[in-house]
Amino acid sequence: MAPMKTIFALASGVGRAGMAVYRLSGPAAGRTLVDLTGRPLPEPRRACRRRLCDAAGDVLDDGLVLWFPAPRSFTGEDVVELHLHGGRAIARALTEALLAAGLEPAEPGEFSRRAFMAGKLDLTQAEAIADLVDAETTAQRRQALRQLEGSLSGLYDDWRERLLRCQAHLEAEIDFSDEDLPDGLGEAARTALAALGEEIGRHLADGRRGERLREGLSVAILGAPNVGKSSLLNRIAGREAAIVSSIAGTTRDIIEVNLDLSGYPVTLADTAGLRDAAEAIEEEGVRRAKARAEIADLRLVVFDAAALPALDPVSLALVDGRSLIVVNKSDLASVTLPERIEGYPVLAVSAENGDGVDGLLAALGEKASELLDGSGAPVISRARHRRALEETETALRRALEASSAELAAEDIRLAGRELGRITGRIDVEEMLDVIFREFCIGK
Ligand SMILES: Nc1nc2c(ncn2[C@@H]2O[C@H](COP(=O)(O)OP(=O)(O)OP(=O)(O)O)[C@@H](O)[C@H]2O)c(=O)[nH]1
Ligand SMILES: [K+]
Ligand SMILES: [Mg+2]
Questions:
Q1: 256 CA to middle of ligand 3, Å?
Q2: In tens digits, what is the pLDDT along the chain, a chain of 443 residues?
Q3: Which of 74, 167, 212, 323 would give a disulfide with 299, using CB separation of 3.0 to 4.6 Å?
Q4: What is the pTM of this model?
């Protein structure tokens, strides 16, 4: 095996800042610190003030240095942290000095990858670090923290252990029963596997709460042309994100704004007015609007108060349990607004003067919490986990139906392998690149 390289990266944000934190990891980290400071290594894990110079003796900066000898460090290797002043010139000079010392710039996610290799984190925890850094709302931050603390690791490891136990029992039965092999599964294994299958099934039926929370809830504003969809988006976003005009068919592309709705991440999308379009570009806009209506977690179906009692039939067809009914232009209403449409409560608003918008946001927040909040039990946070769990469940079901003990044991082995892939207990090499690629540099 090639000797482990020593890597470095700016772990804090790039650009002008009061402070910048650089991280070095690998066998040459300690020697590099000695060379940069011209002093012996400081006491482990204690911040010390030091002046840093390059090989020519030019002063780079004056700051704090920390020394984390292996294995008690983030990566499990020798690690050095340099807390310097933020700024591009310092970053450039330090980078040159480190390159000259033979260190290499870290790849995205390389620190976390080394931590995983050293057994400091499992894959769900490594993914949680990426999520935590990306978290934009309170609920996202909490979910990532729970996962980093091992909520998913604990659950999946426990399931995997139970599977391995069943597998061991079954294989013992096969090995020691000489002539008359037991048919299929033993009673005890059957009960244990069926219970496990049910638990995994319940975990899978979480309404995609964790994944939605990570990705943000997708909310689409839909309705006929000119009902004020773009005006409503702008009112909620607090800025002129979309073009508003009195010409029907103004919006074509989907315009998205990201909102933090009482801690829940929401992507609100404005769409083209639904109608039989007059020309090709608008037609494409309508096609995109309909596609978004299909995939959205929630729909705001907007009607025009000035057009009442007439209700656009295309919009009406979109109303279901996933929608909130909005009647806009309440300031123009000449008739009393209905309390319900198709049995669903009506939210009256005026995008023009802001009336009713707080009520709409409150209703949206309630829906978001219904879709995203759970019992507090750990939830699946990534499609990668969901796929592996589905494979596990399928293999378990096959094991329960298997005609011989050997076939059942093989399926149980497959199920355990799928579970192990989630936390990275087994068979991980090929997945590592995919997982750590989405990290940013310095993590
Ligand atoms: N009086 C009043 N006018 C409104 C209100 N909301 C929007 N309008 C007006 O209605 C017209 C259409 O508004 P838009 O926001 O462009 O409507 P839209 O639904 O996005 O239209 P398309 O993109 O063409 O489908 C504009 O002239 C707006 O100023 C409202 O609450 N009250
Ligand atoms: K319009
Ligand atoms: Mg519009």
A1: 12
A2: 456 899 999 999 877 888 999 999 999 999 999 999 999 999 999 999 999 999 999 999 999 999 999 999 999 999 999 999 998 899 999 999 999 999 999 999 999 999 999 999 999 999 999 999 999 999 999 999 999 999 999 999 999 888 888 887 787 777 766 555 455 567 888 899 999 999 999 999 988 889 989 889 999 999 999 999 999 999 999 999 999 999 999 999 999 999 999 889 999 999 999 999 889 999 999 999 999 999 999 999 999 999 998 999 999 999 998 999 999 999 998 888 999 999 999 999 999 999 999 999 999 999 998 888 877 788 999 999 999 999 999 999 999 998 888 899 899 989 998 999 899 876 555 556 656 766 666 77
A3: 323
A4: 0.80
Which ligand number lies closest to the CA of residue 255?
A: 3
Q: Which of 99, 109, 103, 111 is nearest to 5 (CA)?
A: 103
Give residue ranges with CB within 6 A of ligand 1.
225-231, 244-246, 248-251, 272-273, 328-329, 331-332, 350-352
Specify the residue with its C-alpha closest to ligand 1, atom 27. 246
Q: How far apart are CA 433 and CA 443, in angstroms?
A: 15
Ion ligand 2: residues, Cβ under 5 Å: 226, 250
Which residue carries 């800025």 as its tokens? 239
In the block, tokens 């096609």 appear at 287
Pick the CATH number of 7-106 from 3.30.565.10, 3.30.1330.60, 3.40.50.12780, 3.30.1360.120: 3.30.1360.120
Which ligand 1 atom sits closest to the C-alpha of 351? 31
Atom of ligand 1 nearest to the CA of 243: 16
Alpha carbon nearest to ligand 1 atom 30, residue:
329
Q: What are phi and psi of 282, to 5 degrees?
A: -65, -40
CATH of 127-206+380-437, one of 1.10.10.10, 3.90.1150.30, 3.40.50.1980, 1.20.120.430: 1.20.120.430
CA 204-208-209 angle, to 5 degrees, is 115
- Residue 229 alpha carbon to ligand 2 centre in Å: 8
Ligand 1 probe mutation, 222, 236, 244, most atoms within 8 A of CB: 244
CATH of domain 213-372: 3.40.50.300
Measure the CA–CA gap between 416 and 425, rounded to whole angstroms. Answer: 10
Ligand 1 atom closest to Cα of 224?
25
Q: For the chain, give every domain's residue range.
A: 7-106, 127-206+380-437, 213-372
